[in-house]
Design brief:
With about 550 residues, the protein is mainly beta. Helices cover about 10% and strands about 40% of the residues. It contains 3 helices and 58 strands. A hairpin with a 2-residue loop joins β17 and β18.
């Protein structure tokens, strides 16, 4: 009998599952699950119980049935909130006058809330906001978490008496500090406490000045050098009473050292002046800096040299000895040369010319550089042809004699922009007044248009190739179409045809035809005056107005 009863329950369970078609899971333990077949819309309450949110509430894992005055979906503790109630910090309170909460209590209509306390704005002020604040008197002001008199100054959350001549604020009202200005000083929001033995010297000599976030010592010849990279400064002590100057963030004596820097004045290097007795050389003229412009920021490279007998190579900081008769005034990758001669340094290589084209030199009056490729003789040849044409033309105006030929680059090839056209690295002779490019092909835009398809597919050429001298197979040639506009990959004339959503129609727009989706609408026809949109199918079609 027990077996039959269990089998009957199992059949009922299967029937309910198939009937309702929805299973629901509520976790009982991390490793176990309880499956129940329920109506759609049910939810879990706690780990093992389910409920219908339309009829029941689940508040703090407690299930109950809604009454007529309960607000569905609302809870205050383990109970639902009724229409005339409000929940204040877990407490249900009657709220017939639509009041708000102030902490665990209702807020009176003539008061305001500050934190969890009610106050009369005629007698008190609130510091902070209604959720997190504290009360102060009207003759007080807010200062961090403290109340201070209105006559005081707020400094770092504390009140400072402005009548106290020895008190000052180092910083602002949020992060400042009150200090004794008769003994200490403030440097970059940092209070510097003087050594008791130096107080009288600082005050008497006025040496308590700031240098970044530190102060100078009592010695009057110290200097302050600002940091060029970061905010701050550094005190350079002068124990030997030398004449000091700043070199970036460091100091140096002008009697024994020189400050060297790059052209941008962002890198600095202190270099010692060589002694006249060093290496038995005459170092009296070694005063100029040779700075390596490609130096590492952490370790800049620089040295001194004599400009009368040496030259500086700034690309690497090397110094080259030269003979006064050699006229060497420049260097190229460690090799000296005369910049007034026909030599030029191009990317670390010596070459002939007056300009660089990559790592090679070239002459501007005869050659032209395109993408580091020298087009030799093209400029001089073009100018020669132009001069010959001017001599043959007896009626040429004098003002046209100064006309200069302008060149441009078409890939690595140079071309005359006044007589030729460049289409994607291909050069064409200008034959049309309205010439244009269709990818890499040149065509007459006055009679044709360029229709590039959205898909990469082969299209039969419809224009005759009138340039018989061109032997290249141009990709853009196949996209040139007859017309002034494109309809998909087909050209057409807008004055005689219509293109409706990529479909071409031989319908004259001047005769009342217009597009309606993928169809043509005759607005002059009594049967097709409107273009209608079917909101269910999204289909647009011509229709008769009703």
């Amino acid at each position: 009998f027990f077996f039959l009863f269990f089998f009957f329950l199992l059949l009922c369970f299967i029937f309910l599952f198939l009937f309702f078609g929805l299973s629901f899971c509520c976790l009982e333990t991390p490793t176990q699950q309880l499956f129940k077949n329920i109506a759609a819309g049910s939810q879990c309450c706690s780990l093992t119980e389910i409920y219908d949110p339309n009829l029941q509430y689940c508040c703090d894992q407690k299930i109950g049935r809604y009454t007529t005055d309960d607000v569905k979906g609302s809870c205050c503790g383990n109970k639902p909130i009724k229409i005339d109630e409000i929940c204040c910090e877990g407490k249900l309170l009657k709220n017939k006058e639509s009041q708000s909460c102030c902490g665990p209590n209702l807020l009176d209509s003539n008061k305001q809330c500050c934190g969890s306390k009610q106050y009369d704005p005629l007698t008190k002020n609130c510091c902070g906001d209604s959720n997190d604040g504290y009360l102060i008197d009207l003759d007080e002001q807010c200062c961090g978490s403290n109340a201070i008199p209105n006559s005081f100054i707020c400094c770092g959350g504390k009140g400072m008496n402005p009548n106290d001549d020895k008190s000052s604020c180092c910083g602002d009202e949020l992060s400042g500090s009150i200090y004794d200005n008769s003994k200490d000083t403030c440097c970059t929001f940092t209070v510097i406490v003087f050594d008791i033995e130096l107080i009288s010297t600082f005050i008497a000599d006025g040496k308590g000045t700031c240098c970044g976030d530190s102060t100078k010592t009592a010695t009057g010849s110290d200097i302050c050098c600002p940091n060029a990279d970061t905010i701050g400064a550094q005190v350079i002590s002068n124990d030997d009473n030398q004449i000091l100057q700043c070199c970036g963030f460091n100091g140096f004596s002008i009697d024994t050292h020189v400050c060297c820097s790059n052209q941008q004045q962002t890198l600095f290097k202190v270099v010692a002046i060589p002694n006249d007795n060093d290496n038995d050389n005459d170092n009296s003229g070694v005063t100029e800096c040779c700075f390596d412009e490609n130096s590492d920021n952490s370790n800049p490279k620089a040295k001194l040299y004599n400009p009368n007998t040496q030259i500086c190579c700034s690309e690497n900081g090397d110094v080259i000895d030269v003979n006064s008769q050699e006229n060497i005034d420049s260097c190229c990758n460690g090799i000296g040369f005369d910049s007034k001669s026909n030599q030029i340094c191009c990317e670390g290589k010596l070459s002939c010319g007056d300009a660089c084209c990559g790592s090679q030199g070239y002459w501007i009056e005869s050659d032209y550089c395109c993408n580091k490729v020298i087009n030799e003789g093209i400029v001089s040849a073009a100018n020669l042809n132009s001069n010959n044409d001017d001599e043959d033309d007896e009626n040429e105006d004098d003002e046209n004699e100064d006309n200069q030929i302008t060149f441009g680059c078409c890939g690595s090839k140079a071309y005359n922009t006044q007589t030729h056209f460049c289409c994607d690295k291909n050069i064409f002779e200008k034959r049309f007044e309205n010439g244009a490019c269709c990818l890499d092909y040149y065509y007459n835009a006055a009679h044709f248009t360029c229709c590039i398809p959205s898909e990469d597919k082969c299209i039969t050429l419809q224009e005759r190739d009138d340039n018989q001298n061109q032997k290249q197979n141009y990709e853009g040639k196949q996209y040139v179409r007859c017309g002034d506009a494109c309809c998909g990959d087909v050209g057409y004339f807008t004055a005689a045809n219509l293109c409706c959503s990529g479909i071409l129609f031989e319908s004259d727009p001047s005769k009342g035809y217009t597009c309606c989706g993928t169809q043509v609408l005759d607005v002059l026809s009594p049967y097709q005056r409107c273009c209608c949109l079917d909101t269910e199918t999204g289909f647009v079609s011509a229709c008769v107005p009703t």
